[in-house]
Design goal:
The chain is an alpha/beta fold. Helix content is 45%, strand content 15%. It has a seven-stranded parallel sheet with strand order 3-2-1-4-5-6-9, with helices on both faces. The protein has a two-stranded parallel ribbon with strand order 7-8. Strand 1, helix 1 and strand 2 form a beta-alpha-beta unit. The longest helix is centred in the middle third of the chain and has 29 residues. The relative contact order is 0.14.
């Protein structure tokens, strides 16, 4: 059962066509929530939308948008503005570019910052006035354990912002009845590292016992929404790993092999 003290009758989820985003959509659809699902993969998004509508007899609106572009963000902001009763915003969209920062294409770097930093910030700003007015609502920002590790590239750095932003936002609006969560999953079995950018998927080098499923991550996140905790780290093993990473208690050689 999910917490009864947090109303979850409607939600907007970015990166909803697969992985953690699709798992969130499935969990909320089972509760008969009305959903707005955002993704840049039109075919997958259409498939998820139709499947949820057929299985749960609910209304799901698909929003095809590339959040790496301002026009895609504008489309989502417009939807949020037209839904003053939106209960939950889940900023889940994200991607990584492995490799050395100075060798990466600048347009990809800018796109990552747009997706991880600018888009979540804009969407939170768009949804908060109505939430504050009615003194209810929730925001989940999907962060990463990579934020604790100094490594090449900017993925971890962008997630540092999202984590800090979430905690600061919780201070600002928590006393107004709004829940803000920084979700920090560990290794999750998704298609995150199955793109052409990755020469070797992480599942080939990381022990199987460290992996979670999108379903368990979404379930843990929604359960914790009713609590006062801002950071959510699903799974006992992940909480141990998060503690060690956050406090620098790790082998840099091993981390470079697993995270970089």
């Amino acid at each position: 059962m999910l917490p009864n003290s947090v109303r979850l009758e409607s939600a907007l989820i970015t990166g909803a066509a697969s992985g953690i985003g699709a798992a969130f959509a499935s969990k909320l659809a089972a509760r008969k929530a009305r959903l707005w699902l955002v993704d840049k993969d039109r075919d997958r998004l259409t498939g998820v939308t139709k499947a949820l509508e057929a299985e749960h007899d609910i209304r799901v609106e698909a929003i095809h948008a590339d959040l790496g572009e301002s026009s895609g963000q504008d489309a989502v902001v417009d939807v949020i503005a037209r839904q003053p009763d939106l209960d939950l915003l889940i900023n889940n969209a994200g991607f990584s570019i492995p490799g050395i920062f100075r060798r990466m294409a600048s347009e990809r770097q800018v796109a990552m910052l747009q997706v991880h930093v600018i888009a979540p910030t804009r969407f939170c700003r768009a949804v908060l006035p109505a939430m504050v007015k009615r003194r209810s609502g929730a925001i989940i920002n999907v962060c990463s354990m990579a934020q604790y590790v100094d490594s090449a590239g900017q993925y971890g750095a962008s997630k540092i912002y999202l984590d800090a932003f979430s905690r600061n936002l919780a201070v600002e609006v928590g006393h107004l009845g709004i829940k803000v969560q920084a979700l920090i999953p560990g290794y999750v079995a998704t298609n995150f590292d199955s793109t052409d950018d990755f020469q070797q998927p992480r599942r080939n080098v990381i022990p199987g016992y460290l992996w979670s499923t999108p379903d368990t991550v979404a379930e843990a996140s929604l359960r914790q929404l009713a609590s006062a905790q801002v950071r959510c780290v699903p799974g006992a093993g992940n909480r141990v790993m998060e503690f060690m990473l956050r406090n620098g208690l790790y082998s840099r050689r091993l981390v470079r092999r697993w995270l970089v």
